[in-house]
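Design request, tokens follow.
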């Protein structure tokens, strides 16, 4: 094996001079002073300030209670924006501060900010990818859940991309850094999260409209009222100012603005306790105007606490003990998703057969495989993927239709060509797994339905299983579902998300495009679950 040298010192210095260093740009946000100034110095406050000064000048201190309301409103709005700004500034997907880099043939541990474009880095189990990297030697299993929401490990081979923000679950590899700084995938995601989009708020627009039209009237009316009271009616200056101020203050909607600000601030606090970041108070109103709520199944509609309901041995030409095979399978597997955690709890005796090779589970393949000594290759996954022509027993179909997950245990002769010849798998058994539906799911979805919010379930699981769970939860038209793996074009995907409330076998990429389709059709969309 050729020794990896990496960049030389002179090459590193040249990259630094060219600015090709892994330094993320600081987020462009307003300073605390800018936020305070924007909330204090506005037309609304200016009118109130002038009225207050006029009342103070005639010592009408008892009429200054409105100042408390104005100050309270300003403090609430400014404080909430500063708090949100500080939270947004802290957003960062990269939490590991150092990375191993090969330079001049020597591995050094350096700060992430010292990595340059083209550096050769070494990642091993437990490391976080600090910059987008192309694998050049060895294979690793990677957790990209922080980026995609999918917790299933993904195998990365030479030539594959390691995205910044993901973690190495097993193995070690050398890679070449192909993106640094703002070009990194993780930094692009955090920049999107930090971006403050203009808030489309009817409340805010109404307040601005009222304030604008009121401002057109305040100045001429104040002059007329002062003239009428002081010149025509010959009132004292104190009486003139107090009466005029009282009339003008009634035109400025201070109480309405304060009441709204307090209500929104209370909502922000309540959401904050649920670990929800609110960038702008008026986004609470946007949330209340949602037309469509998209959610996944596992851990959202269901409790995410799977249990094996039944194991069925099938007729096959082998005399293998399925339980012994599965104990060896789970012992040799590096997968750590919810399904495999359930399998490991059930098949917990020591392995009888040695693991020779493995293929990790992926949400795209819907199966995983392990080559066992003297046995061959054992594959576990969705029956319709592993052996599409196999007819499940009627009672198994019935269990699947009631919401159970069905896994097939199969045997294959060659792990090296299993992807291309997966239909040559011999079924050995079936595993029935149940995930109880959340007790409050039906009540929660009924609340959304009563408020004219259309609920759509978009899951990576079997569509029939998803449909059964959705029916139990009360999703409208849940019995009419579609398999996203059959979707080939953007037009078909758009038709699916517009006309179906239950979509199974959806990939993270498809979930993203579905949300964009709904937004393209002027729908206000919310999403919860790992699809976020």
């Amino acid at each position: 094996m050729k020794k990896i040298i990496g960049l030389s010192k002179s090459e590193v210095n040249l990259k630094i001079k060219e600015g090709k260093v892994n330094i993320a740009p600081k987020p462009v946000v307003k300073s605390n002073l800018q936020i305070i100034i924007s909330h204090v110095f506005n037309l609304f406050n200016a009118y109130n300030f002038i009225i207050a000064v006029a009342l103070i000048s005639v010592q009408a201190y008892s009429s200054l209670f409105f100042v408390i309301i104005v100050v309270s409103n300003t403090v609430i709005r400014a404080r909430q924006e500063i708090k949100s700004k500080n939270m947004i500034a802290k957003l960062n997907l990269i939490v590991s501060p150092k990375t191993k880099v090969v330079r001049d043939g020597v591995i050094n541990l350096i700060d992430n900010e010292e990595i340059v474009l083209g550096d050769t880095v070494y990642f091993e189990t437990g490391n976080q990818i600090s910059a987008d990297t192309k694998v050049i030697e060895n294979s690793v299993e990677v957790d990209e859940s922080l980026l995609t929401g999918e917790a299933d490990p993904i195998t990365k081979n030479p030539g594959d991309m390691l995205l910044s923000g993901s973690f190495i679950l097993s193995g070690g590899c050398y890679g070449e850094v192909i993106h640094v700084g703002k070009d990194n995938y993780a930094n692009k995601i955090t920049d999107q999260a930090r971006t403050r989009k203009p808030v489309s708020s009817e409340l805010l627009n109404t307040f601005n409209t009222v304030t604008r039209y009121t401002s057109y009237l305040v100045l001429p009316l104040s002059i007329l009222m002062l003239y009428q009271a002081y010149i025509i009616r010959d009132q004292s200056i104190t009486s003139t100012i107090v009466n005029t101020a009282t009339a003008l203050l009634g035109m400025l909607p201070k109480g309405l603005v304060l009441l709204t600000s307090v209500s929104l601030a209370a909502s922000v606090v309540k959401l904050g306790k649920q670990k929800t970041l609110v960038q702008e108070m008026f986004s609470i109103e946007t949330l209340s105007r949602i037309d469509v709520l998209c959610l996944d199944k596992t851990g959202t509609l269901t409790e995410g606490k799977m249990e094996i309901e039944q194991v069925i041995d099938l007729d096959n030409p082998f005399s293998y003990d399925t339980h012994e095979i599965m104990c060896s399978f789970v012992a040799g597997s590096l997968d750590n998703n919810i399904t495999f955690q359930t399998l490991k709890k059930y098949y917990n005796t020591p392995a009888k057969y040695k693991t020779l090779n493995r293929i990790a589970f992926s949400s795209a393949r819907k199966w995983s495989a392990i080559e066992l000594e003297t046995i061959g290759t054992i594959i576990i996954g969705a029956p319709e993927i592993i052996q599409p022509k196999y007819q499940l027993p009627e009672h198994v179909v019935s269990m699947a239709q009631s919401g159970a997950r069905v896994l097939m245990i199969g045997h294959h002769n060659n792990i090296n060509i299993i992807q291309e010849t997966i239909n040559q798998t011999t079924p050995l058994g079936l595993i029935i797994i149940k995930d109880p539906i959340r007790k409050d799911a039906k009540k929660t979805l009924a609340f959304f339905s009563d408020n004219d919010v259309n609920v759509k379930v978009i899951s990576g699981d079997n569509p029939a299983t998803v449909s059964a769970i959705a029916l139990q939860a009360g999703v409208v038209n849940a019995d009419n579902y579609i398999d996203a793996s059959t979707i080939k074009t953007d037009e078909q995907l758009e038709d699916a998300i517009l006309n179906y409330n239950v979509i199974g076998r959806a990939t993270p990429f498809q979930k993203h495009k579905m949300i964009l389709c709904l937004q393209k059709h002027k729908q206000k969309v919310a999403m919860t679950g790992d699809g976020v």
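Comment from the thread starter after seeing the answer: thanks! The two ends are 42 Å apart (CA to CA).
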